[in-house]
């Protein structure tokens, strides 16, 4: 971990750079009883309220502000949220952006990328296909590649979630974090560095970090399920993996049904709308895949909200 330079000091320095451009997202405290669960308290960090609809804005701004952006601008591959974030940061900083997405990307996210002024290219069926196409484009035109998770600046930016959570007075015993490529959990685990139990949560259809930890290295895993556009790369990042080996206690797998239930319960109970990946960490609690001890203080990251799960167009006015 020290060789990569992803540590508390650099995360704090990165946060100072990106702070003017990101939103300090709120934290709400709920009781387990609110959801028919045990006697514990949960602190929800609402990163779905971040600019561009997810925590990804932090890593996007870290890349564009800490690295030199050439005249050709930036290029990124994304299942959706990273692309929206890079497009948002590029527009804010007045840089050209081209975003490559796979065909499984959510139409909502593709529309947001276009609306933010970036060039959108659909390439292949999965994230790995879009990544390969983006790399070819970068070599051809000299654009700066902004990797969704396997880039030092990305991890430093995402680590600011942990810094901010701690600064908001969250005295946690455990923190549940959804895992895709691992940029979020890697940055957060580097920030807490063992002071808080970090538990990864992955869909059963995309057990990327679980497979890597079992193998002792990043390996290919399935890349499917309801959250495939945000939590299903073929492998976790090489940079985050040693951090996870050291500071992620374990990984919990949750079903697609439990993720959908978590989305519904968040709406019914708190009027919070998340995308599937954004509800995955809560699904671990709701499905009892993670069972807190009595009195335990559990942090839950609701990390993304780019969805049309609630269709306000179907509302009718009664007279």
Give a written overview of the molecule:
With 319 residues, the chain is an alpha/beta fold. It has twelve helices and ten strands. The chain has two domains: 8-55 and 152-302, Rossmann fold; 56-145, 3-Layer(aba) Sandwich (Rossmann fold). The strands form two sheets. The chain has a six-stranded mixed β-sheet with strand order 1-2-10-7-8-9, with helices on both faces. A four-stranded parallel β-sheet has the order 5-4-3-6, sandwiched between helices. It is globular. The termini are far apart.
Looking at this protein, list some descriptive labels.
single chain, 319 residues, alpha/beta, Rossmann fold, 2 domains, six-stranded mixed sheet, 12 helices, 10 strands
Main beta-sheet strand count, sense and barrel state = 6 strands, mixed
Strand content: 15-25%
CATH topology of the largest domain: Rossmann fold
Number of domains: 2
């Amino acid at each position: 971990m020290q060789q990569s330079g992803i540590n508390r000091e650099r995360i704090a320095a990165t946060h100072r750079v990106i702070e003017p451009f990101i939103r300090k997202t709120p934290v709400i405290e709920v009781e387990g009883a609110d959801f028919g669960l045990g006697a514990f308290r949960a602190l929800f960090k609402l990163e779905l309220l971040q600019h561009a609809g997810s925590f990804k804005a932090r890593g996007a701004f870290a890349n564009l502000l800490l690295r030199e952006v050439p005249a050709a601008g930036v290029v990124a591959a994304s299942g959706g949220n990273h692309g929206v974030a890079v497009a948002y940061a590029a527009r804010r900083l007045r840089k050209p952006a081209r975003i490559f997405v796979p065909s499984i990307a959510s139409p909502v996210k593709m529309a947001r990328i276009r609306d933010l002024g970036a060039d959108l290219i659909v390439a292949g069926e999965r994230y790995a296909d879009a990544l390969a196409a983006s790399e070819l484009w970068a070599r051809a035109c000299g654009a700066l590649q902004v990797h969704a998770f396997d880039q030092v600046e990305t991890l430093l930016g995402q680590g600011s979630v942990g810094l901010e959570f701690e600064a908001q007075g969250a005295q946690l015993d455990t923190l549940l974090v959804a895992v895709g490529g691992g940029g979020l959990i890697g940055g957060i685990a580097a920030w807490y560095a063992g002071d808080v139990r970090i538990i990864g949560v992955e869909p059963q259809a995309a057990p990327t970090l679980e497979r890597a930890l079992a193998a002792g290295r990043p390996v290919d895993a399935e890349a499917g399920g309801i959250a495939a556009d945000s939590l299903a790369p073929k492998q976790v990042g090489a940079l985050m993996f040693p951090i996870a080996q050291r500071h992620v206690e374990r990984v919990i797998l949750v079903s697609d049904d439990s993720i959908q239930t978590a989305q519904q319960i968040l709406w019914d109970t708190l009027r919070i709308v998340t995308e599937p990946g954004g509800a995955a960490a809560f699904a671990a609690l709701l499905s009892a895949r993670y069972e807190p001890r009595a009195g335990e203080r559990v942090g839950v990251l609701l990390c993304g909200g780019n969805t049309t799960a609630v269709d306000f167009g179907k509302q009718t006015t009664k007279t």
